[in-house]
Amino acid sequence: MFEIYDVVIIPLILGIVELFKRAGVNKKVLPFIALIIGIAVGVVYVTDFDVKQGILVGAMLGLSASGLYSGAKNTVERSDE
Fold first, then answer.
1. What sections of the protein cross the membrane (predicted)?
2. Sign of the alpha-carbon dihedral angle for 54, 57, 62, 63
3. Which of 37, 50, 72, 79 is the most exposed place for a label (fewest CB within 10 A)?
């Protein structure tokens, strides 16, 4: 099951999505990439191939990473003004 130290997966997903961004992927697609990576990690790593639970946990991880990314981006943009 999901352990508290698995929360470090969120910044890891964030870093991978940042790599996609720097590679030139359209910014509108990045949240979907975070979601897909989160689900993959949830199914394979967190729940050991329990697909139903992995999708739920992975969606939480991917959406959390996506929210962290957009929240940090909005904070940086506001401080630049």
1. 29-47, 53-72
2. positive
3. 79
Residue 26: strand, helix, or coil: coil
61 confidence band (pLDDT: 50, 70, 90):
very high
**Chain centre to alpha carbon of residue 55:** 13
Mean pLDDT, to the nearest integer, of 53-67? 92
Whether residue 78 is contained in a domain is answered as no
Q: Backbone phi, then psi, for 48, in 5-degree steps?
A: 50, 55
Is 2 among the domain residues?
A: no
Cβ pair 6, 46 in contact under 8 A: yes
- Determine the pLDDT at residue 30: 92
Q: Is residue 16 part of a domain?
A: yes
**H-only helix segments in the chain:** 9-22, 30-41, 51-80
Q: Residue 40 pLDDT more than 60?
A: yes
Tell me how many domains the chain contains: 1
